[in-house]
Specification:
Helix content: 55-70%
Order of helices and strands: EHEHHH
Structural class: alpha+beta
Number of domains: 1
Strand content: 15-25%
Shape: flat
Largest sheet: 2 strands, parallel
Number of strands: 2
Number of helices: 4
Strand order of the largest sheet: 1-2
Length: about 80
Amino acid sequence: MQRKTYNFKWVGLVTTLEDVSLEERENLKDDFKKINAYPVFMTAEETAPYLLFYENIFRPYFHNFKDIYHNGVDYLKYWKDFLIV
């Protein structure tokens, strides 16, 4: 039996309270790329307008996959119904 392999990419926000120089950003991008990760750099101040939307929409939507499969058969049925739509 052949083993399945997956090619995941991580794209995510890297926030800091201090400025990150362009040289540091390029070095970090190179390091992250080795593990198939692609950082998006923003300061805490730059992220402020987006946090409410993220906290209330994106984070719950994309970070709760475990709940779909571990909260019992009823929830799994609803998930399967959702996929068919």
